[in-house]
Amino acid sequence: MTRPMDEHLSAGNRRDIGTYAPEHFAWKAERGVGVITLARPERKNPLTFDSYAELRDLFRRLAHADDIRAVVVQGAGGNFCSGGDVHEIIGPLTKMSMPDLLAFTRMTGDLVKAMRACPQPVISAVDGVCAGAGAIVAMASDLRIGTLRSKVAFLFTRVGLAGCDMGACSLLPRIVGQGRASELLYTGRSMAGDEALAWGFYNRLVDPEALEAEAVGWAASLASGPSFGHAMTKRMLHQEWAMGVDEAIESEAQAQAICMMTQDFHRAYHAFVGKTKPVFEGD
Q1: pTM of the entire structure?
Q2: Is the distance from CB of 203 to CB of 144 less than 8 angstroms?
Q3: Among 46, 104, 163, 235, which is 20 to 30 Å from 156 by CA?
Q4: d(CA 163, CA 176)
Q5: pLDDT for res 87
Q6: How many CB atoms lie within 10 A of CB 23?
Q7: Which of 51, 11, 63 has its CA nearest to residue 27?
Q8: Cα–Cα distance measured from residue 241 to residue 118, given in angstroms and rounded to the nearest whole number
Q9: Residues in a beta bridge with 129
Q10: How far apart are the first and last CA of the chain?
């Protein structure tokens, strides 16, 4: 089936973004894994208006990328992301009109929408500071690996805002539970690595020096799996939040029947019969 043309991509490269060269963060791709590195370590990797928009656009492009099957998001210099840059975002926001403010908050929310809509599993590798919008990026990922020294803080109330930023009041309770999410969003306090693991925010906890290798290795393992099946799993995990049980069961019946039409399903069967390991190709 022909997919719609992304407005940012030409017909010649719309399915291959491994060589993509962003301006406001680092990007590399190998073995089907794309790695995003927020790379302003001298300021703990804050986001700017431009990096927000470029991240959003990259995740939108991933919906059309045949060469990327899993994504890792990490930060440089021992920190993940300190949130919106105080001088380049917070200061200017205090001088904006209501229409401009709403355009900004919708744009930041679009980053989360793009992360949830892209078919690839997204793994955040979190070390050091992970605050504000950085905590949101980690939250919006499918999987999270942290370190003991990491500190996750949804600190919006500490700067006079509401905790309901970029989907936090919807997504965070589904990860850590309503009561725990309420505590984090009301107080804006930091959640240490061991607590984040115990509360289910992190899937794994590793030493800082092993973090990137662990995240990329996990992503590579996912990338070697059935990418169509993973994309369907991600879509159903997202869509079923708003479904009743009967509706969810019917939706999953339809989704699984579609997956049974793929060549990867047939490859897995023949590999099982032949007592070999299946090689999935995503079709």
Answers
A1: 0.90
A2: yes
A3: 235
A4: 15
A5: 84
A6: 7
A7: 51
A8: 17
A9: 151
A10: 11
DSSP-derived pairing of the beta strands 151-153 and 204-205 = unpaired
Is residue 37 predicted with pLDDT exceeding 70? yes
pLDDT at 14 over 50: no
Contact 47, 81 (CB under 8 A): yes
Q: What burial letters (b/e) apply to 3-16, b meaning 16+ CB within 10 Å? A: eeebeebeeeebee
Residue with token string 């009041």? 169
Per-residue DSSP letter, 260: T
d(CA 83, CA 270): 48
**What would the pLDDT profile of 48-73 be if each residue is shown by its tens digit?**
999 999 999 999 999 999 899 999 99
Q: Which of 70, 84, 101 is nearest to 40 (CA)?
A: 84
Cβ-contact 21, 76 below 8 angstroms: no
Sheet holding 33-38, edge to edge: 26-30, 33-38, 70-75, 122-126, 143-146, 204-205
Q: Check: CB of residue 67 under 8 Å from CB of residue 15.
A: yes
d(CA 236, CA 282): 18
Quick check: 129 and 137 in contact, CB under 8 A? no
Q: Please report, as a single letter, which amino acid is at residue 215.
A: A
- Residue 240, token pair as written in the block: 């079923």
DSSP-derived 3-state class of residue 233: helix
Token pair for residue 222?
């996912």
The SS3 assignment for 66 reads: coil
Q: How far is CA 229 from the centre of its chain?
A: 18
Note whether 37 and 211 are within 8 A (CB). Answer: no
Architecture category of domain 26-223 in CATH: Alpha-Beta Complex (3.90)
- Six-digit token pair at 124? 């955040």
Share of the chain above pLDDT 70, in %: 94
* Residue the block writes with tokens 């793929």: 262
